[in-house]
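Researcher: Here's my situation. A collaborator sent me these components and asked whether they could plausibly form a single complex. I don't have experimental data yet, so a predicted model of the whole assembly would be a useful starting point for our discussion.
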Amino acid sequence: MTTRPASLFARELLLPALVDALRKLHPRTMLKNPVMAVTLLGAVLTTVAIPTSGAEWGFVLQLGLWLWFTVLFANFAEAMAEGRGKAQANALRRTRAETHARRLVGVREDRVVATELRKGDLVVCEAGDTIPADGDVVEGIASVDESAITGESAPVIRESGGDRCAVSGGTRVLSDRIVVRVSAERGQGFLDRMIALVEGARRQKTPNEVALTVLLAALTLIFLLVCVTLRPFGGYAGTHFSTPALIALLVCLIPTTIGALLSAIGISGIDRLVRRNVIATSGRAVEAAGDVDVLLLDKTGTITLGNRNATASVPVPGTSAEELADAAQLASLADQTPEGRSIVVLAKQLFRLRGRELAEPHAKFVPFTARSRMSGVDIDSPKGGVRRIRKGAPEAVNGFVTASGGRPDPRAEATAEEISRAGGTPLLVAEGKRTLGIIHLKDVVKGGIQERFAHLRRVGIRTVMITGDNPLTAAAIAAEAGVDSFLAEATPEMKLQRIREEQAAGRLVAMTGDGTNDAPALAQADVGVAMNTGTQAAREAGNMVDLDSNPTKLLDIVEIGKQLIMTRGSLTTFSLANDVAKYFAILPAMFAGVYAAEGQPGPLAALDVMGLHSPQSAILSAVVFNALIIIALIPLALRGVAYRPAPAAVVLRRNLLVYGAGGVIAPFAGIKLLDLVLTGLHLV
Amino acid sequence: MDAILLITLIVGGCAALSWPLGRYMRWAMDPSGTEGLAGWFDRLFRALGGPLTREAQGWKAYLFALLACNAVMFVLSFGFMALQQWLPLNPDGKEALEGSLIFNTVASFTSNTNLQHYSGEVSMSYGSQLFALMWLQFVSAATGIAALAAMARGLAGRSVFGNFFVDVQRATFLVLLPLAIVVATLMVLGGMPMTMLGAAKATTLEGIEQVIARGPVAAFLTIKQLGTNGGGYFGPNSTQPFENPTFWTNILSCSAILIVPMASVWMFGRIVGGMRHATILFAVMMALLLAKVGMAVACESAPTQAFSSLPVERECGNLEGKELRFGSAAGPLWAVLTTCTSNGSVNCMHDSLNPLTGLVPMVGMWLNATYGGVGVGMINMFIYIVLAVFVAGMMVGRTPEYLNRRIEMREVKLAVLALFAHALLILAGTALFAVTPWGTATLNNVGAHGFSEILYEFSSATANNGSGFEGLGDNTVPWNIATGMVMLLARYIPILLPLAIAGSLARKRPTALSAGTLAVETPTFGVMLIATILFLGALTFFPAAALGPVAEHLQFMK
């Protein structure tokens, strides 16, 4: 994203949020949140009661004002959370300025407005054009600037076929010409979904949020019952409890803290994902991420760096290491794969062999194909004849040796086996019928990944490495990276099968994927994170898209999901724990006159353990505390509670202590302090 | 010191005995196969019950059978009692009863409450006592045990909850009846009457003829205690020397209150396959029970306020309203045990307890799950568990799960509905009677104590407890109708909703356990559960408690 507010309370966010807070007072909006709707009703009733309150009108006025503030603070919290999303949505929307498209009809080009495009239309985009809609490249290759969506300025390559064919509407072609088949109509495209989501416009409550809302509404109902029955209870004792006092008690008891911050917590969860350049298609997916039990991780790119490096050359007896390195380097000179380059570098490091220019027609390069599974070079030797050097999978190169009239060297095969077992990839090098030796290619496990897996294990999440490698290699890398298990020689079907098995055992599965063949698995997984570089099919199938295409981010996503639910639970506990102190502030104030002898405080005045100044200041202090705590907790709601990976029991103990015990104690101090301030200012 | 010994003996003894009894109840209520003795009984019950027992019931069918069966129980008893003057086993020629009193009494005994707005020895024939009331004391208790077994099966993931008609026979014939025979024999040995002869007539030294009520007391008392019923044979309940002759029968009676509710927890644990979880639940209930016992006994060790300025002995505690045979500690201990378990029998007058001691029985009924009624106590606890799991589950960062199944909107909704119903019946009922002559005209006390009497009566009806604060002229049409309806609602709503939750959970796909799952067998969860129970209870009832016993206490302190 281009605009990122530096602080939680940046000025450009504050003002619109204040306006929104007022706008959200509309009854239809308020009704969505039962707790705050009751508070609003209380504010209205208290306001209405001001003129009839006689000498108490100043007190009732202040009470009314603070009740209105309570409602406004809740709206403000939600508006703040939405505002942060909106800033991002606006940045996105700018890129969506009215674009024209060149629709291809047969061989003719029509110039149409982008909104007229339908699914299946073909459009042409050339350097400088903005791609009008989401689609797949069906012809050509181009470099595309996707910074509008990803914030990443380096252009990416998009080409027809394969796994890099998806393009997004709103991105710009920098070079060349491509033909795109439109896959999503205007308004349903990727960018549109992203905008809608970060804005929170179509935000639907997630299952857990709905359940919590029900709990909060029911608690509100119970407290309403408690407060309503107090009137007749007082009537029995011959004391009249005033409506404003009962409303004050009600508002203090109902869980306004969590009620006010609930939607802000949900929105900020999605927002935190967006900040890490992950777009979730629904809040439900974020919540599910917190429940994940198993992570299926692709080895390459997630656990290991994308490339394997040549780390050693092991010649067969009778060949010198230098000779092997030289041959391998020659065979790799034209090989632009990272593996090929690393062989050139290795030869240079070991024997100071410099990369040489080999020019055709003296040298003929044999590129790698999936069928031959080897590559190499044919060089005209200065001594006459042709040097035919090959490197590749041992079986393939052995085939070449046999074809050249030689015999595969069993010693090289033994070495190859050993390397495989240790998790490496052996590359057999041969010249003609002569086997020279083995180049040891090694996967490089990402730094710090082991600790992250250990963290996951502590919170009960298992990691499964998915790799196309053979079981021996896979086992070695799995051991080195510290994953819990692995799936070797994996095919997309096996992936899907594995997900189904885990789910049948009652586990929630998360995975990342990019290719079209990952689509079924992504759709089956409970949390499917598609890479932005992936195909359109993959992006449609998953329920999240990672704009940075960094599979390791799955770990962050899980943490954000957990943190989201944890924040809800902790603030619910805090909100309820607060009630104890509020009871001890308001009830003695209300009950002071019950069963009282003439001119003396009643027996229940003794419940005033905080020693508050007067009944009025006690009630007002509790209401003010109740309102201010919302503002004080907005940063916590937006950032989420501290997340440290630990087993459930440890986390529960910590949060129970901080938000439960803390929630009981904090308001005693807060209300006493406010009482001193209010009386100091002579407000009551 | 004596008090501590007494408490240890009764509570500790029951806890120890509840373990084997829980194991036996599991064998009786949820036999694992068709082999052996359990299988033989199973075939017997199915033969006795006929076609009704063949259906494998889901939660809805089970609930329907339960409600239908209870309706039949209600109608039969109502008929018997309404016609008692013409029916046999009426040696003392008891007259017809007033309509609203019959309704109240039948509702009371069907709902396992045993709130008594009558005095047995005055109004009831032997036939009514045995065939209407004592029969209900067995089958209503069996209904509670059956409901718990069904709920546990659901939570164990079985979609078939069993068959109510089989379960209610198992609970009656295999659990309650054998226990009752053993305990009743001990009671008779302790000196309790067990006779079908009419009232004894004696000529006193002054030459006046005295009529001494008696009857099949031992049988009645035993199931009254074992089935958490609480309805006494005599009006004064277990303060009457024939219903509680000696210190020994007093200990035995106290133990009989506690044993089956305690064993119900173990039975639950065994059926759901979570004995460590059950241990935590047992410990939570025990902690709350002991806290209440401790508070009550401590508060009662001070003499009553009326004596504060008199030169009387202060070491013996408050003896007002107590049987001198038992002393000042046995009364509050019984009062706590009987209200924690929804029993409702008494061996002292709760009206005469010191104000804060009087608060403790009310707390027991407000929470109603610290062992609670037979079967239903554990069912009530389940409601608190669902809510504790929901909040604690969120606090550990996962969608909450209980016994491998997710707690979602539907479960939360049903659980809070049960909680709300409980609060509504107590608070709204009290509010209504506090400001209308229905309540105020029946009071024998004014001020805070009078308020406590009304609050206590509705708490007792709602908790299906049945004990009375007394001091209340409660045999009036408004009291009879109101508490009768409250008892029925408060009986079936808290069975219906938890069974529905279990039904909903049983349908869900089980989730796998991991280190990230909230474990319900740790002490931390126990603390969470205690906090949930205390918070929900305190936040709901604190204002009412303040205006009743707390105000009375503070008035005395001044």
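Model: Some features of this prediction you could bring to your collaborator: The first strand of chain A starts at residue 100 and ends at 105. Chain A touches chain B through 74 residues (CB under 8 Å).
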